Structure formats: C-alpha cells, structure tokens
Amino acid sequence: MLTRRTLLYVQLAAAILMSGCQALPSTPEEALNRLPDYVATPIGYRPETATIASTVDAAGGMVIVYRWLTADTAAGACRLAAAYVTPDALGWRPQSTLSLTEPLDARCEAQTFIAGSLTGSEASALTAVFGASARGVAVRLTWPDGQIQVVPLTNGVFVQARPEVFETCGLELLDEFGNVIEEESLT
User: Fold this and answer.
1) How far apart are CA 150 and CA 169, in angstroms?
2) What distance in Å separates the CA atoms of residue 24 and residue 85, rounded to the nearest whole number?
C-alpha cells in the first residue's frame, strides 16, 4: 500500500521529469515550424516564413516541400526546401531537411528547373526528389532500379518519394505534349 508520502514523492518525480520534456509538434505543419529544435537547418532559416508548397506521404511519414525567406537577401531572399517528418505516439518528429542552394525569384518562384533529393534518417529508408520550374507540366523521374514515374508540377513544384535509399535519379522536365524541355541528374 502506498503511503501519502510515497505518493507525493512519485508525483514530484513525475513533475520534475515532465518539466524537462518538450512536447513534439502535433501536426506536420507545426513540425515544419519547429525544424530548428530537432534537425540542422540552413544558415538564415526563418521558420516563421515557411509556407508549404506540396506534400507527399512516404515511408510512414510525410515529405513537405516548402518555401522560406532568408535574412540574407544578397544570396536570394526566397529558397525551396523539403523536410521529412514522421508521426509517433507523442506527435510529429522532424527527421531531416534539405534546402536547395539555388534561390527562387522575388515572388518565390523558380525561373529555371531546380531539383534536389532528400534522404530519411537513420531510422527511415527514404529518398524524396523535389524541385520547381516555371516551365513544363510534369517531371519524369528515372530511378536507379529502372522504375519510371511521371510527377505533375503543381503551382510550379513537384515532389515524389520512395521508401528506399538511392544515390542517383534522372529527371526530365516535360511540356504538355510529353516532350523533354530540360534534363537533370541528381547524384
């Protein structure tokens, strides 16, 4: 039987332990705003400026492609990035993020075809390919295992992911007739 004093000690210990615990974000969007709390982010990253451009469910989590404004306007004020977040019993946990080095224009739109790839974390096998273009209607991805996927550009942005780790991926920007406008290879 627990005495009142023992119960008080248990409650006190629980309160001390809980005060040191930080709650995980409750939504994928909140996880995006709290990236710096969990993973390394680019220099100048301002989470309050992040806006979601596209998402895709992958490998038990979500890949979020987002635009963000940097404090360093000399390097280009707007950037495109992707983050991989996974749910657990406590909320959404940011696993990884990657910001492209090519800046977007003043309207946060790509003037050229830009792309990058994001991998999961030690706990999650994932390769996400994302990017943007002001031209074209879709991107044809050729994965190293030969699988080909055509991904539409939505508001100038695309994202696709597979629950495997790949080192390379071929990309072709397509016009409305399926003609190749531009090619890119991610390594």
Assistant:
1) 13
2) 11
How far is residue 187's CA from residue 183's CA, in Å, rounded to a whole number?
13
Q: Write down the pTM of the prediction.
A: 0.82
181, 174 in Cβ contact below 8 A?
yes
Q: Is 47 exposed, middle or buried (0-12, 13-18, 19+ CB in 10 A)?
A: middle
- Single-letter amino acid code for the residue at 89: A
User: What is the Cα–Cα distance from 79 to 62, expressed in whole angstroms?
Assistant: 20
DSSP 3-state assignment of 71?
A: coil
Q: How far is CA 68 from CA 3, 27, 36, 82, 107, in A?
A: 55, 19, 13, 10, 11
Instruction: Kindly give, in sequence order, each residue whose CB lies less than 8 Å from that of residue 19, ignoring residues fewer than 6 positions away.
Output: none
For the chain, state the CA radius of gyration: 20
86 in helix, strand or coil?
strand
Q: Are the CB atoms for 32 and 85 separated by under 8 Å?
A: yes
Task: Quick: pLDDT tens for 114-170.
Answer: 999 998 776 678 999 999 999 999 999 999 999 999 999 999 999 999 999 888 899
Closest CA to 156 of 84, 70, 53: 53
Q: Is 164 helix (H, G, I), strand (E, B) or coil?
A: coil
Count CB-CB contacts under 10 A for residue 162. 19
* Counts for the chain of helices (H) and strands (E), in that order: 3, 11
For residue 92, pLDDT over 70 is answered with yes
